[in-house]
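Just scan my protein:

——
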Amino acid sequence: MQKHSVFSVENGDVNGYLDDDGRIRRTGTLTTTSAHIMTVVIGSGVLSLSWCLAQLGWIIGVPLLAVFAIITWYTCLLLTDCYRSPDPIGGTRNYNYTQAVKVNLGGFKYKLCGISQYAIQVGGSIGYTITSAISMAAVKRSNCFHKHRHNIGCHTLNNSYVLIFACIEIVLSQIPNFHKLSLVSVVATIMSFAYAGIGFALSVAKVVGGTSAETNLTGKAVGPDMTSTEKMWNAFSAVGDIAFAYSFSLVLLEIQDTLKQSPPENKVMKKACTIGIGASTLLYMLCGILGYLAFGNDSSGNYLTGFGFYEPFWLVDIGNICVVIHLLGAFQVIIQPFFAFVENWSRENWPGCKFIEREYMIGKCSINLFRLVWRTSYVILATLVAMMFPFFNSFMGLIGSVTYWPLTIYFLIEMYISRAKIPRGSFTWIWLKLLTFICLLVALLAAAGSIQGLAVSFSSFKIFRSVS
């Protein structure tokens, strides 16, 4: 007769400490998952949307913001049902995106998904490091401009700020897993709304004050300051920036895995996706439209670090500090799945190794030596790359364009077609394939724009010489 363990794999343990899969009971809610989503979606890129509209104009730019929001929302709703297989409510859990692809699609697609996901996560963490350093340097420059007016450039090296960001991330990286990131995500979300709100308020003040600039239905016109070729490349890059602004599906299942078992995770996650993407889109619209109205066709890539505003300098400083705090949290949210992948792989290959598995309690903190060494080493390596290649954001644009289509569109739709057993050649099958093809074209155009940007960056490249 089979003996029963102290907990039931089907129903969780009798004391309520474990879930149906034998893991520690999850405590995530609609609020925490919505915060996780907004932490990932609302990045400092919100401050560059006015530049995107300047390249595309009112006719194309604003509708694209809405179109990509709807596409992302729809595909993410499809992905939430892939958390459990084969039944979306009572099936076996898929703890991450790659596992869901393996279960539903298998083979080559699973390997391609893993490469794409971890490439964008590693690249994103390096990009966040660079962006944070630029925002920290902008605080110093803002104070310099206030003191000396605009007679000098107030330029400064970013390397010291990269190191400051890295030191903080070494500490935060010891947070063991996604389940412990709720507070970090909530704080990061508040910061994202804070700096976006500051940009919004400054733009309103500029428009109301009657100092707004010229805008056009088709964006910045070809002329003495811009050739037709430059216009084309900038438009491609802008389309890519808008599309990638909504990319968070690569960590969606990890976020969903933090939810309590009841009510069903897929139902709660669908509400969280609607809230998170809806709030992000509203913020994008407000900041992008008002930023374009304020700065017109001369909008900079980031109007807090590109100094679309000089005064009040203290408010610009607060905005950039909020950007840094947000990116400290966003770094953790995007890189935790990669940390988990390496650590789980290590446990599987060296079972019983105390260095890898043993946890030491210091007060209320749990310290694992392998986690301490590995994650610290990763942050140091990411920091070195950020310092060596100050144009890494251009690389990030290329990585984003290459991985956007498979991670945000293709795999999600293919898993849905497979799970729902949609007949080949049916109306639903045709329009889903058409959506996949259109988004592939967008990704290819964005990749072309990123490659052109890399060529420009290489022309003035100096190793370890990132200057703001």
